[in-house]
């Protein structure tokens, strides 16, 4: 039995919106297909009439600097992110996360947009993007009267998720174009010089790190993963973001732990207090294929401390 009847490959966003408006339903976008095709074959996804292949849309394949952000298109394969010099320089946590997704053959075709759209609370790329404070660019029809016209908007990354496997995207109407990730920038400060205030430039050291715990045989699914982004000034953490998966039904930011560390020196006592705050806020879940909630609560201490210390060490170089 055919898993679909129509296969359409739009060349731009306008054609994609036309496909949304006119192609036989049910319809599903596809890029690498490493999750979707398996779900269709194994009955975990409802049948589709039309597959819309988005890999020929130029905007979805870009990886470039745009002002003070790094833009990564939704159809960019994760292995390209692993190897790209811009990504390695500016979003190390994301390159580390992408390098752990499945095996080499899968990474060559699996896309960052697919990793996010699947809406799993412990997806490696998703957890890294959350810590890096990404914004998602979403395309939709600009007008019901002209369904082929295109409107794009940016949304905070966490607004994409409603629950395990549930995305806030309007099915068959909206498409992830890509992700904007803030990158390190030079901050202007005023310093005293010869009794006069003069404007000078100061760069605070920024770093990020991603680590995960998985089964020894290298099963692709993580038991736990963690991403940390921080900005450091000498021994003080000026700003920090921590994401842990799965810490709840949606990708989880450990905001209480961030509050404990924000503006503080990274002493052992402070790090332990941050961990206790993370443990109190997270809602670890039991998964038959991954691990139990109590086991995750037991092992998250080492993962959190290891990821945080690596990010601190990188920012001190």
Labels describing this entry:
alpha+beta, five-stranded antiparallel beta sheet, 2 domains, 11 helices, Enolase-like, domain 1
Poorly predicted residue ranges: 186-195
Q: What structural category characterises the helix and strand content? A: alpha+beta
Q: Assign the CATH architecture of the largest domain.
A: 2-Layer Sandwich
User: Going across the major beta sheet, what is the strand order?
Assistant: 4-5-10-6-7
- Find the count of extended strands (DSSP E, 2+ residues): 17
Under CATH, the topology of the largest domain is which?
A: Uridine Diphospho-n-acetylenolpyruvylglucosamine Reductase, domain 3
User: Distance N terminus to C terminus?
Assistant: 58 Å
Q: Which geometry do the CA atoms define?
A: globular
Instruction: Specify the number of helices.
Output: 11
CATH class identity of the largest domain: Alpha Beta
Biggest sheet details:
5 strands, antiparallel
Mean pLDDT equals 91
Helix/strand layout:
Layout: E1 6-8, H1 13-22, E2 27-30, H2 36-41, E3 50-53, E4 63-66, E5 69-73, H3 78-83, H4 85-90, H5 92-98, H6 104-107, H7 112-117, H8 124-131, E6 135-141, E7 150-156, E8 161-163, E9 166-167, E10 175-182, E11 187-193, E12 196-202, E13 205-214, E14 222-233, E15 236-245, E16 252-253, H9 255-261, E17 264-265, H10 268-281, H11 293-315
Parallel strand pairs: 1-3, 2-3
Antiparallel strand pairs: 4-5, 5-10, 6-7, 6-10, 8-9, 11-12, 13-14, 14-15, 15-16, 15-17
Helix pairs in contact: 5-8, 9-10
Describe the structure.
- The chain is of the alpha+beta class.
- It folds into two domains: 6-182, Uridine Diphospho-n-acetylenolpyruvylglucosamine Reductase, domain 3; 205-315, Enolase-like, domain 1, CATH 3.30.390.50.
- It has helices at 13-22, 36-41, 78-83, 85-90, 92-98, 104-107, 112-117, 124-131, 255-261, 268-281, 293-315; strands spanning 6-8, 27-30, 50-53, 63-66, 69-73, 135-141, 150-156, 161-163, 166-167, 175-182, 187-193, 196-202, 205-214, 222-233, 236-245, 252-253, 264-265.
- The chain has a five-stranded antiparallel sheet.
- Helix 5 packs antiparallel against helix 8.
- The chain is globular and about 60 Å long.
- Residues 186-195 have low confidence and may be disordered.
């Amino acid at each position: 039995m055919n898993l679909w009847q129509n296969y359409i490959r739009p060349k731009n966003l306008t054609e994609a919106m036309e496909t949304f408006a006119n192609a036989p339903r049910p319809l599903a976008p596809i890029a690498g297909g490493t999750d979707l095709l398996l779900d269709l074959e194994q009955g975990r996804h409802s049948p589709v009439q039309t597959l819309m292949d988005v890999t020929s849309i130029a905007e979805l394949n870009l990886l470039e600097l745009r002002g003070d952000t790094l833009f990564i298109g939704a159809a960019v394969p994760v292995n390209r992110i692993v190897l790209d010099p811009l990504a390695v320089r500016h979003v190390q946590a994301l390159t580390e996360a992408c390098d752990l997704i499945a095996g080499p053959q899968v990474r060559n075709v699996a896309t960052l947009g697919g990793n996010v759209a699947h809406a799993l609370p412990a997806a490696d790329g998703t957890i890294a993007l959350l810590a890096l404070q990404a914004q998602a660019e979403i395309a939709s029809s600009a007008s019901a009267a002209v369904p082929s016209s295109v409107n794009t908007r940016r949304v905070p990354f966490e607004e994409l998720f409603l629950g395990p496997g549930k995305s806030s995207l309007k099915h068959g109407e909206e498409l992830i174009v890509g992700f904007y990730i803030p990158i390190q920038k030079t901050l202007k400060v005023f310093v005293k010089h010869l009794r006069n205030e003069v404007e000078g430039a100061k760069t605070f050291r920024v770093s990020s790190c991603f680590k995960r715990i998985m089964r020894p045989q290298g099963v692709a699914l993580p038991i736990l993963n963690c991403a940390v982004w921080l900005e450091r000034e000498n021994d003080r953490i000026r700003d920090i973001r921590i994401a842990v998966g799965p810490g709840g039904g949606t990708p989880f930011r450990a905001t209480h732990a961030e509050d404990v560390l924000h503006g503080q020196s990274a002493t052992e006592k402070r790090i332990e207090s941050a961990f206790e705050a993370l443990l109190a806020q997270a809602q670890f879940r039991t998964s038959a294929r991954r691990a139990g909630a109590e086991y995750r609560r037991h092992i998250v201490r080492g993962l959190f401390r290891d990821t945080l210390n690596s990010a601190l060490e990188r920012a001190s170089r």
